[in-house]
Specification:
globular; 6-stranded mixed sheet; about 20% helix; alpha+beta; 4 helices
């Protein structure tokens, strides 16, 4: 069974080559284990400041329903990842234990014939604040 992994480009020059790769995976593995493998082997950039990434699983393409409305691909957020700069530990916040525990076979069945992609979406403002700092800033 094949799954793709991809990430957003983060700056000029980073978009020269594709970041997508395709892996042969065992169907009994979970989305969480695929995400863990990706985090070990797939570099997420930190560009001159603290950034965050949303890891999500996406399948299907844009489609038009019987009324002519266009629907985007289906996406499920899996985790929020924070990459500190210039040093420090990456923080991972799981967002959906249901999907993280789902087998790759079950996700592929959900997708039908559509490609399934583990996407990393870049968020340029990834600062971490303590609750009191956040409240003081936005009160």
């Amino acid at each position: 069974m094949q799954f793709s992994i991809d990430r957003d480009s983060v700056c000029m020059g980073d978009d020269v080559a594709s970041h997508r790769l395709t892996l042969d995976v065992r169907p009994h593995r979970t989305l969480g284990s695929l995400l863990a493998q990706a985090l070990r082997k797939y570099r997420l950039a930190s560009v001159g400041g603290e950034v965050s990434w949303i890891a999500e699983v996406t399948y299907g393409g844009y489609r038009r329903d019987e009324r002519g409305l266009v629907h985007p691909p289906v996406s499920h957020a899996l985790a929020l990842l924070h990459v500190p700069y210039p040093e420090g530990e990456t923080t991972i916040i799981p967002l959906s234990n249901y999907f993280l525990a789902m087998s790759l076979r079950e996700m592929a069945e959900r997708a039908g014939a559509a490609e399934v992609i583990l996407n990393f979406h870049y968020l340029s403002e990834g600062a971490r604040w303590r609750p009191e700092e956040f409240i003081a800033r936005y009160k």
